[in-house]
Write a sequence for this structure.
């Protein structure tokens, strides 16, 4: 088991925060644009945006609290590091990473439950990232 | 770790694979037969390994006509840990079963699938786990359980555990069904719920699609 982390610098942290905000805003825009009746038609795009926002937000939290962020595609490393930085929030990242895994295996569209859960997990992570970045 | 070569955690040499083959078999073999079981290395390499291990006493060697037969010496002090290592995949399944048994949000079905269930699993491969939850479920509790399982399975093996989650309704209604569900039903190693559940669900879904 090789745990990969990378040191953060201020530019990197600010850049990840911008991406987290951008993806999160895009998630809400896509859902608002589609409306309740049409949101399942854009569910895959919205969930993907939430996953990207959550990963970027997790990097910001880890950078702010630990000075490093997870590098690579190892889900265990990413949730493990976030757990050190902000215990409790790792479940939200794990929820999003599980959806990423599902998207990698399945051609099925995301369902309403996934859309809602992705949004909740993303919002918690992005809010925490904004607070950590401001602190 | 490599699920198909669990003794590689202690030795990367042919000896580990030879010991695993002998530990999982309740019979003795010629070097050629061990080589055929392993499907790797040379016959000479396997023979040298068997001779080396026989010198250590962990492998028995007895003449059979013009050849020698080799087997694991199950009375050897080192035999039990070797057998335990050789049965790592079965032990992993047992641990997974034990881990999910008390879940308040129960797993309707659970299986190890992908390379971890086959012979081509590598040390850097993911550990693919299929879990099916009930249609009506507490998703926050389910996510917490899944995350705890992922973390535990990663710690047990060193492989990044990836849980692929489905609801029962998604398996029944899937049209066409995801290939991965068929693969898990065919080659997966079941550890939770009714072992026949996935096959029956996929059959029921097929009958429904065909209007039967």
């Amino acid at each position: 088991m090789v745990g990969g982390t990378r040191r953060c610098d201020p530019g990197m942290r600010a850049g990840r925060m911008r991406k987290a905000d951008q993806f999160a805003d895009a998630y809400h825009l896509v859902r608002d644009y589609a409306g309740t009746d049409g949101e399942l038609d854009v569910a895959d795009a919205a969930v993907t945006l939430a996953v990207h926002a959550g990963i970027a937000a997790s990097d910001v939290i880890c950078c702010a609290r630990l000075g490093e962020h997870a590098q690579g595609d190892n889900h265990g490393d990413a949730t493990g590091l976030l757990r050190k930085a902000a215990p409790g929030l790792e479940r939200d990242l794990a929820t999003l990473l599980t959806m990423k895994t599902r998207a990698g295996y399945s051609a099925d569209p995301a369902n309403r439950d996934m859309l809602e859960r992705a949004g909740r997990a993303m919002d918690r992570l992005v809010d925490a990232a904004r607070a950590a970045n401001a602190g | 770790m490599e699920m198909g070569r669990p003794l590689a955690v202690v030795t990367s040499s042919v000896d580990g694979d030879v010991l695993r083959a002998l530990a999982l078999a309740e019979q003795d073999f010629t070097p050629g037969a061990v080589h055929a079981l392993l499907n790797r290395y040379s016959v000479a390499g396997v023979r040298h390994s068997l001779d080396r291990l026989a010198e250590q006493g962990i492998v028995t060697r007895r003449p059979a006509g013009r050849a020698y037969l080799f087997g694991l010496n199950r009375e050897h002090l080192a035999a039990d840990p070797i057998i335990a290592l050789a049965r790592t995949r079965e032990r992993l399944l047992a641990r997974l079963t034990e881990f999910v048994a008390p879940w308040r949000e129960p797993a309707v079905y659970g299986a190890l699938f992908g390379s971890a269930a086959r012979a081509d699993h590598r040390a850097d491969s993911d550990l693919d786990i299929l879990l099916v939850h009930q249609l009506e479920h507490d998703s926050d509790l389910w996510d917490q359980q899944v995350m705890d399982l992922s973390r535990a399975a990663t710690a047990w093996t060193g492989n990044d555990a990836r849980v692929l989650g489905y609801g029962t309704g998604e398996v029944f209604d899937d049209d066409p069904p995801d290939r991965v569900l068929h693969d898990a039903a065919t080659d997966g190693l079941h550890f939770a719920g009714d072992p026949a559940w996935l096959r029956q669900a996929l059959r029921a879904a097929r009958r429904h699609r065909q209007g039967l």
